[in-house]
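FW: tagging you since you asked about this chain on Friday. Here's the raw sequence from the shared folder, copied in full. Didn't touch anything.
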Amino acid sequence: MATIEEITESRLLLAEYDRIKEEQKTRIGFRDNLLYFTLAASTAVLAITVQSRQAQLLLAVPAICLVLGWTYLVNDEKISAVGCYIRDQLGPRLATLSGTHGAVFGWEFYHRDDASRTTRKRLQTAVDLFTYLALPMICVIAFWCSPAVRPLLVIVSLAQTLALAVLGWQFLRYAEL
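HL: got it, structure written out here
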């Protein structure tokens, strides 16, 4: 155990860096698995819908995508917030304490300067929008075109459509394009 004299601001900041990088790593794994889980759950619902010939089951896909999409988006925002905090707060404080000239934690800046970053971000946003917005809207439209349309289910599908539009707007808002 370190004595009080051995605990310095630099050590505390480095310990904080280690913890938030661990949190970031965990959130990245969770976020990426959400995408796979969303696709698997949506595929399962589509298979059940086709087998049972009950088009109203298609409305489960927007519900799945809304819940998992919001969770994906929240985790993605926290992942970005960790990087921003390291670049804007933690790194400069450590640089000042250590007398370092230039950036501390250079990777946090380096990987953002990649010439292909904008293209990758746009493609990832397109994948996110397809998974969490287009796929469930295709299901809603397929439901609307089916003989299973009932007034209460139409109201549910309209509410889902509104919620999906808000989710899509949030994806674009946080995309950092």
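FW: The chain has a mean pLDDT of 92.
HL: agreed, and Helices lie at 9-52, 60-98, 107-110, 117-144, 151-173.
FW: great, closing this out.
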